[in-house]
């Protein structure tokens, strides 16, 4: 029974290390690709803090265990990798948006996209990656892993699992915190527009300030990893990015903890209040302008009726 337990543990470690290595390679490929496309080096990619992107690891493990029998049919291997990874990316995008109320990537500007979640270019690259995984990555990694003793493999995998799942736990906490912050920002804006209790609104603003101040580093890392998604998310998301940047700048100014907190609080409140004022003023302008248009239209109609009546009376007198 002991040997069976160790063998199972080794198998789990073996699969996890495949996942981990593929996630590392996926991170490197994405950094290189995005740096070339954007024409500047950007190391901060993906959700997690570490240099790995899980979706590549998951895709690699799925391809290895589902498509290894297609080794002698590269066309089928490409097509199935294309299909599997496209479905995986679409589902991941959908679930992330529903859970955290933010769309983290969008391909709407690229041709042949589906709801901005997947696109033809990426799917073709995934198909090519599937062929590379089966023909090159899998044999290479297998040869390396086969030289590693079982006990060492389990120890290495356990160490990597601790790092990875700690990172995952912290990132999920940050995503949940961002969702809560966005909800509170919407509440402040709604309360200001409806002229609700000032005390309640101020309390909510203070909570937003404190939450951002405590998590400013993690917020910034996550938001900077996805710099081009402001246009596909709500106004509150763009305001959140401004708040986080303002908070980070205030903290970097080297003020004391108390003064720094006050400055961050004031800066954050100003952004929230100004954003609310902009919406309120816009709404007010629309109402005022609409009222003026109606008033002018009504006045014009009244003047026409008056002139018509006067002209008729003149005609009657002449007769």
Would you give an account of this structure?
This protein has 319 residues and is mainly α. The protein has 2 domains: 2-147, no CATH class; 170-283. 80% of the residues lie in helices and 1% in strands. The chain contains 8 helices and 2 strands; from the N terminus they run H-H-H-E-E-H-H-H-H-H. The chain has helices at 2-38, 54-67, 74-100, 120-146, 150-193, 198-224, 235-252, 257-318, and strands spanning 113-114, 118-119. It has a two-stranded antiparallel ribbon with strand order 1-2. Strand 1 and strand 2 (118-119) form a beta hairpin. Helix 2 runs antiparallel to helix 3, helix 2 (54-67) crosses helix 4 and helix 3 crosses helix 4 (120-146). The protein is globular and about 70 Å long. Residues 256-265, 278-284, 286-291 and 312-319 have low confidence and may be disordered.
Chain oligomer state: single chain
Instruction: Let me know the largest β-sheet.
Output: 2 strands, antiparallel
User: What order do the helices and strands follow?
Assistant: HHHEEHHHHH
* C-alpha Rg (nearest Å): 29 Å
Question: What is the number of E strands?
Answer: 2
Number of domains: 2
State the helical fraction.
over 70%
State the end-to-end distance: 121 Å
**Rough shape?**
globular
Any low-confidence stretches, pLDDT <50, length ≥5? 256-265, 278-284, 286-291, 312-319
Mean pLDDT across residues:
79
User: How many helices?
Assistant: 8
